[in-house]
């Protein structure tokens, strides 16, 4: 890494007044540091470099702002150890939100990506939410932008989906989205089949899944006022023929599907959809409705089709609930059941072994050269 003398010299080049070619080389060097673990650890100890990067996002050179400054900040925000140093800069989060709300800001997609990275973990997610409140930015504005096609002509803003999903880790965010008077959930539901972006589609489904942890709202979510079930089931349904009796038991939107009906292409999204329904079966009313709506028939055909082990396992768990007996009267709400400590340890051990086997099975199925990107973490080199 740089000596103190070299670091001081490099920092002197990271200013708005520096000659463009020198400034370009200096910011390019920072980008290189941000792309690896050791470089991030080094920058973690150099708050002046981080402040200089934030300042240079206002540089007149689009290349420096786009190709170096924002790319560096995206890489740094993808490293969890950099979260606190970044949010400690009092100008950083306010700058991000100000630019995100500007419909003319050409780098808004990079803003979305940074905010998504920063909000992955609850601790910094709270800081992101607090920054929104300080600037009097309410969640309604974020939802409005997310649901407005072409809000920014120079940015797709697809990462607003994962940002919303991350924010719903917080009870206050879920409370807003589940407010019966606001109709936020109803606005988000069509995005479960949003074909223009897997990122936005997955983010919205993650948002719905997180909201289903609040079991008091299950009956409302499954009622005609929201009717969440068809939006969760339809992406998992295929073209298989069913008997008239089975079709009649399904929600109307799931009956007699065409021969060219295709399922959700992304396995992680398929799993999230199933996990959302598993959460809904945690309450008695949820189990009753999913059974009455013949969800089992769709999931039976889905299980026969699914090739990804981790998704098939989630499907099996849902099917077991749908065809199983009802729990004892004092255990009807599975989200409130207290599990003895020794049983919890055994269950966690079983889950770990199951996950290990699933990962092994998946490795056998995947091309060894194929790499996967962690959801919600974005790096740019």
UniProtKB/TrEMBL annotation:
Superkingdom of the source species: Eukaryota
Protein HGH1 N-terminal domain sequence ranges: 100-271
InterPro entries in UniProt: ARM-like, ARM-type_fold, Hgh1, Protein_HGH1_C, Protein_HGH1_N
Domain Protein HGH1 C-terminal: 276-329
UniProt xrefs under Pfam families: DUF383, DUF384
Family stated for the protein in its record: Belongs to the HGH1 family.
Name assigned to this protein: Protein HGH1 homolog
Organism of provenance: Oncorhynchus kisutch (Coho salmon)
Gene that this sequence comes from: HGH1
